[in-house]
């Protein structure tokens, strides 16, 4: 029997399954009615994949728009169609006289606001079809460049034509494209051979849980520990101002009316709770200081 579960699970996705395959495994393990994930990871990638259960799916956009941290290993001197090791090597080039100083000079170019052209091997849709399905059928579509931001690009190691980087980036960043572009500038090409997502927004890597850990808790029937893995929905909204509302205020918002709270925030999104400190939704502060509902949970 499927259960009504509401909250967030920070899954440590293993290398191998797609994000959707990992999602379906979690759904089955928890016997959950409704699940969704935020921000796909390629099969060769591991790391943080936030799983939204039930009503948490209404707030998943906040995670999709969050900054992310990655650790990536790129192989210089080899170019693949997909930009990673999922497809065969198409071109091999010599990596000649490349020093750490040379590499650091190239990395400077990719820090801050930059533009990227999304890869064909991506889940972006064109006329309802993911680009990766089109390219596998030999169809390539012209993609527009997108502006992204690389907050941090740190070289951890350079050895045997392998570069290991830590990347802190904005939403919409394709790490494969970043590695490919670096390889192009170095004149030797490059592709991703290992990728791990360390964090999403404010969620720390230490909060991740593996599939094996989940399976072990289920096997041991340790339901208390299993339930504690599910973070509350409001944890998505960490750092957003919160307001305590009366029941009448909550009713007005759910019926499409505006409310005004003296001394409250003058702009942006606000987290809404009832007098029992229970999360009930989010509101938008209007230019006149009034608050309107943006997403509300059932009363």
What is the CATH domain class of the largest domain?
Answer: Alpha Beta
Helical content (DSSP H or I, runs of 4+): 10-25%
Give the structural class: alpha+beta
Low-pLDDT parts are none
Average pLDDT, to the nearest integer?
A: 93
Q: Domains counted in the coordinates: how many?
A: 3
Topology pattern, helix = H, strand = E: EHEEHEEEHEEEHEEHEEHHEHEEE
Q: What would the CATH topology of the largest domain be? A: Pseudouridine synthase
Strand share of the residues?
25-35%
Discrete helix count:
8
Instruction: Please report the distance between the alpha carbons of the first and last residues.
Output: 25 Å
Instruction: Count the beta strands.
Output: 17
- How is the biggest beta sheet arranged? 9 strands, mixed
